[in-house]
Sequence to fold (180 residues):
Amino acid sequence: MISPPPGMERILFTEEEIQARIREVAAEISAKYQGRPLKLVGVLKGSVFFLTALAREITIPHKIDFLAISSFTSRSGPGVVRIAKDLDDPIEGEDVLLVEDIVDTGFTARYLLRTLAGREPNSLAICTLLDRTSSRIVQVPVEFRCFEIPDRFVVGFGLDYKQLYRNLSYIGVMNPELAS
Ligand code: IMP
Ligand code: MG
Fold:
């Protein structure tokens, strides 16, 4: 286990709490998608740790694929998102679960839902590890969520600070001003 990064204030969810909650959500997903062509679509890189943990607890056959996005702030404001690496395969006729590390403002999720909906999946829904509804700017439907979190910056279990700390086994609140 790596030592706590500078600026780490407190642990929000331990590895055990995360695993237990993932098991519950995976059971919900397994029941809901029983007998359907399920595909988990992970958003690189943040969702990789969550997606693999979730997939291992899902008890029905399913496929996985990944895409990467880049988002940036422009003069017109935040929320400009585009696909930097697309899925390998079509999703037409499949039951797609978009797997996210965190839904924050909702811009990323809305963009991905709109983009993927145009490819005619049989169904499309979001499963997120973390949900910060207090930061929402655009409304998106979140079907499955492991944890609601407060309005503080967090790292671990896939979430990064400047690309670091994704490999922490827990999720912790970090003060970015003390981080480096
Ligand atoms: P949004 O919902 O479009 O605002 O963007 C969500 C993205 O912002 C996530 O996929 C993360 O990469 C990043 N993000 C938002 N909040 C945090 C946080 O607390 N820690 C680390 N990354 C975050
Ligand atoms: Mg990030």
